[in-house]
């Protein structure tokens, strides 16, 4: 069986599982961890920094999605096809064709959040480090 056919089978099964509230989270977790985990390990061995940024951003966004699920778990139970949409979003984040996590980093996270807070955070951390590791 070719890798493309196998991928379609896995995605099809994940889609069917995601339609049910009880198996949906399981499908999202399995699909959202296995392939990105393998690619993250490959990125560690690769010397390119672009894939490192993509996979680090993916894991931050994946963790944020799961945190929001935890906080608003009772509310998402009433959203029809929530896990199907979440599966689609997670796949958008990690698929090489879309590179969604990299796009979200470049268009939203860096210009809207990090660029404003970067100076304050880094100067605060440098100040903290100098106080903690002060040589007498």
From TrEMBL:
<dbReference type="InterPro" id="IPR004345">
    <property type="entry name" value="TB2_DP1_HVA22"/>
</dbReference>
<keyword id="KW-0812">Transmembrane</keyword>
<feature type="transmembrane region" description="Helical">
    <location>
        <begin position="26"/>
        <end position="44"/>
    </location>
</feature>
<keyword id="KW-1133">Transmembrane helix</keyword>
<comment type="similarity">
    <text>Belongs to the DP1 family.</text>
</comment>
<protein>
    <recommendedName>
        <fullName>Receptor expression-enhancing protein</fullName>
    </recommendedName>
</protein>
<feature type="transmembrane region" description="Helical">
    <location>
        <begin position="56"/>
        <end position="81"/>
    </location>
</feature>
<keyword id="KW-0472">Membrane</keyword>
<dbReference type="GO" id="GO:0016020">
    <property type="term" value="C:membrane"/>
</dbReference>
<dbReference type="Pfam" id="PF03134">
    <property type="entry name" value="TB2_DP1_HVA22"/>
</dbReference>
<feature type="transmembrane region" description="Helical">
    <location>
        <begin position="87"/>
        <end position="105"/>
    </location>
</feature>
